[in-house]
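BUG: 3D viewer hangs when loading the predicted structure for this chain

Environment: internal workstation, default settings.
Expected: structure renders.
Actual: progress bar stalls at 90%.

Input used:
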Amino acid sequence: MNYTITNGKLTVTARTFGGELTSIKDGNGTEYLWQGNPEYWHGQAPVLFPIVGSLRNKKAVIGGNKTCCMERHGVARKKEFRMARKDDGSVVFSLSADEETKARYPYDFQLETAYVLDGAGVTVQHTVYNPNPAVLPFQIGGHPAFNCPADPAERFEDYEVEFEKPETADCPLMDENGIPQMDRRVSVIKNSRILPMKHELFLKDALIFDRIQSRKVTLRSRKSGKGICVSFPELNYLLIWSSANGGPFVALEPWSGLPTCSDEGDVFEQKRGVFLLPAGEKKVVSYRISVVG
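C-alpha cells produced before the viewer hung:
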C-alpha cells in the first residue's frame, strides 16, 4: 500500500512493503527519487536493518552462542510493514519480528520508520525498540537512490557530489562478496569538496567513505544547480553507489556501520558501527533528504 504526504513544497510517497520511499517530487512535479528499473537496479530506497551490506558467508555469531544468517542488507527490506500513523505531513510504518525474521536474526524487535515533511525536506527517522531481556545488537542505514539526471535534457556526467567539508578519501575496495578490503584502497578525492560523477567510479561496487568529516552531501547538476542534499549527523559512514552497467541514478547511503570487513572476525557485536541497545530501551536514528536549487 502506498501513502502520500505533501506540504506544497514537496510531495513524498512511501509504501508499506519494505517501509521505503517510492517518490520525492518538488512543487513543480520533478521526480528526484529513482523509480527502479531491473535493467540497472529494481530497488529505490530500502531500509537496511539489522545489518548494512553483507556478512561474511552471510553468517555471524551473535549473542554469544547464537547464529544469524542474512542476505545483504538484512531482514526488513522485503517485509510488509504496517501503517501505524499518518497525517498530512508525516507517515509512520511499523515492523515487528516474526518467525521468519527470528530464523535469520534471533531476536524480537520493533522497527518504526517515519517520514516527516519539513519545508523542502523529508526527515527519515528510524526507531528501534528492544523488547528482549538481553542487549539487542544491530546496524541500520538508508539506501535512497536519486535520478541522475533528474532532467532528461542532462547527462549523468553533468552531476557532482559536493561534500560539506574538504575531504581526502581513500575508499576500501569491495570483493565479489561485498566484503570491504581494508588494506586495499583507492584514492577518490584529495582535499576537495567536489566529486564529479562518472560511471567508471562504480565499476567495482560502491564507494565507501569511512574516514570523512562531512555529515552532509549534495548531488547537484552543474548546469541547473538543482539536486538533492542528504544530511546525516547521527551516522558515521557514507556510501555512494550506482550500478556497474551505467545506471542513471546515484545512491547516497548514510549507514551506522559497515559490512563485515576483511580485518574483522565473524562476531556480530564486534563489527564496525553496531549499536548495543539495552533491554527495554529504544534507539532513534535519523537523516534528512532535501531538494536544493
